[in-house]
Amino acid sequence: AMIRAAAKNYRDVAVVVDPADYPAILAAIKDGGISEEQRLTLAKKVFVRTAAYDAAISNYLQRLESPFPPTLSLQFTNGRPLRYGENPHQMAAVYGTAGIAGAEPLQGKQMSYNNYLDVHAGVGLLREFDDAAAVIVKHNNPCGVATGTDVLAAYLTARDVDPVSAYGSVVSVNREVTKAFAEEICGTFVEVIVAPKFSPDALEIMKKKENMRVLLLPERCDADELRTIDGGILVQRTPVYQEHWQVITNRDPTADEMKALQLAWKVCKHTKSNTIIFADQKRTLGIGAGQMSRVDSAKIAISKACGSLKGSAVASDAFLPFPDTLEVAAEAGATALVQPGGSIRDKEVIDAANRLHMAMVFTGVRYFRH
Fold it and tell me: What pTM, to 2 d.p., does this model score?
C-alpha cells in the first residue's frame, strides 16, 4: 500500500522496486537529482509489480474453488514491438520472458509475428522426437518431417518431401547445426533456423544470409493455451493423458508399419484439421492439411506425395465418419491407418479395412487443431 501511494505521487517521490535500477538512481542523485521523467518510469514499474502481486493472489484464491475462475488476471512482460503483424497493415508486439516468446535471434533479422507463430508450431512438433529429427513448417503447418542417422540427413530428407513449400520456411532441428549443415541450409531461402546449438563455424557461414534468423531452441514452457476471440479469450489446459493404441482389424501392423504409423501420428497431432498424413518409417510422404473435408485432405496428401505411397501408413487427426478416406488411402497404396476411433460407423470402416487387408489402430484420443 505504501509503495502504491508513493508511486501515485511520482511528481514528488521516487519509488524503487527493482534492484537493477539502483545504479541509475545513484548516478542521478550524484548528477543533481532524479528527474520527473525518471520518477514516472519508476512509478510505472511499481504498478506493474503490484498488479502482478494482486493478480497472483486473486488467481490463487479463486482457483481454490474452480480450475477456471470467473475472473482471470493475466500479466505478460518484456513487450517488444514487431515490424508488423500477420500483414504489413497490422501492428503487433510480442510479450514474454521465457520459451519461444522470450527468444531473440543470435544473428539475422528481427523475428516477425509470423516467424514466432511458425517457430511455435515447428518446435511443438520437434519435441515429439528423441531421434535426430528435422521439421519444416510453412504457414503453421509442417510441409516436411523426417528422422535420420544425423540431423543433416534428416533435414535433407524432410526438405525433399516438398521442396517447393520448403522455400521461405522455418526449419527446426534437435541436434547441433554443424558447418556442413550450415553450408547446405544456406543454399535455400529459409526464414528461421532453430536448433539447440550452433557450432562457431556454422554461425560464421550463416552470417552471409543476413535475412535468416538463427534461433536457439528454448526450454519448454508448459502453460495454459490462450486464444483471443471477439470480446474475450478462450483458455485451454491439457492434463496428463495417455493414448490407448488398439489394433481393431484382423491383421496387426508389421513392425515397419507400426513405426510409420507412430511417425505419421506425431505429425498429425501438430497439423491443422482436417488432416491426413502419409508416412514411412523415416519421413512424411504426403501432407493434406486444413481442409473442410477429410477425403479432400487425403486427396491433397496423395497429390503432393514425394514418391510412391505403396506400403505407406496413414494418420487421421479425428475419426473416419465413413470408409471413403480409408478407401482412397488404400487405393493410393497405404497398408495401415491410425485414427482415434469413436464414430457411429466404426464397424463400417473396420469392415472396409479388413476387406482391403489394411491394418488399423484406434488411439482413443482426437487431435483437432484449429
Answer: 0.93
